[in-house]
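Q: Protein A?
A:
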Amino acid sequence: MSRTRGVALSALCALLLSGCTLVPTEDSPTVVMPSNNQLGLLSPTIPGTNNGRVRFVTQLVYIVDATGHLAPSSRIVPEPPTLLSVLQELVLGPTAIETSTGYSSALPRKIVIVDATVKDKIGYLDIATPLSTLSQNRQVLAAGQLVLTAEDVGATNGVQISVEGVIQDVLLPDGKKLRLVTTEDFSTLLNH
């Protein structure tokens, strides 16, 4: 009997407390006046900086579509886009909506981009784990994702991938291996 009484009392308390809130509610939105904004949230610059601003741009990354080809997808990155910032968006993989429509990524889930820069129109990528640990099909698709994405950030003369500073041979769709790969090497992977 006392257990039933305890459960009933707990349920009654939960019901009563469910109507309570610590935050008062309004029937309509409340306008925050600029004079009453102590945190600087309405300021066009970043609070606590010397007029610091962040602007964002749309940048293409390449992911694997439902047919197994590479397809461009838009991501938002800080301006100016750097190879590292764009590749960090790429390694996050497809969005939930893209995944629900069959898109995926050939890159390992836990891939770490140690460094990525563009110098003389060549992209230099240093990753923590070699792509050679993947199946041959995934190696080719993953390399294609990196190379095609890098071209849109300025690596128009190719990409060189290294692991701990050691330049890697990159597997191409035709089975050859090169150390400096270009978008032309992976053009057969694009969904035309």
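Q: Protein B?
A:
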Amino acid sequence: MKRLFSSLLAVVLVFALSINALAAIPTVYYNDGSSVLQYSLTNGTFGDAFENMIPGVTRTQQIALQNNGSKDSIRFFMSVQVLKTLINAAKDGAGYTVTLSNSTQTLFTSAPGNVGGTLIGGRDSNELGDLDDALYSSDRNGILVSTLEPGKSDVLTLSITPDATMSNAYQSGVGTLQFQFFAEKVVAGETIYIPGTTVTKVVSTGENGWIYAAAGVMLLSTLVLILTGKKKDKGEDKKAVKNS
């Protein structure tokens, strides 16, 4: 019974910490003749995943890219800027592991152990604001994230993991991320710039995930008590039969 309880508890904790880990996917797309990139936010907005971040728990935002045109290949660029860092979190020297990839390759990683990999932020730093320099090209434009032929699509995956060593100071922090996209296409040897709308998103730290975990533990405890009670009742019934 103890082994069953431990297994179920582990499942509930994993489920609770995974809540909001993968948000709905917004879409950035190009159509023939478009002068600007189009956005579809029907399935969620940029940065939804980065609400109520918890130390040691990865939050992952996916963004779909689509070239709905029929003639030209499109180069998509993206940048992420931190307009307001997580103020309370900065008091604790918060550091973050950040990765950005498309469906075929890793575009950026701050994971320790990788070439050039160090935590973003950390004590005596601009905390999450250090992401500004990490996800920009040397000329301060966005970085190339995908080149798509007509009718093709791709998915970007941006993951942010707050360092697991933070203390209780990492609570109730509020910040703002800004997602910027633009594109380029080459027609008759001329590079044509295709601007995109800038989207801002409020992000936060919190402990909502633990609320779900606690609820799950209470549910499991109740279940175990019921099962234990039934087992005890059966044992007493057998004992009564044996003594009669």
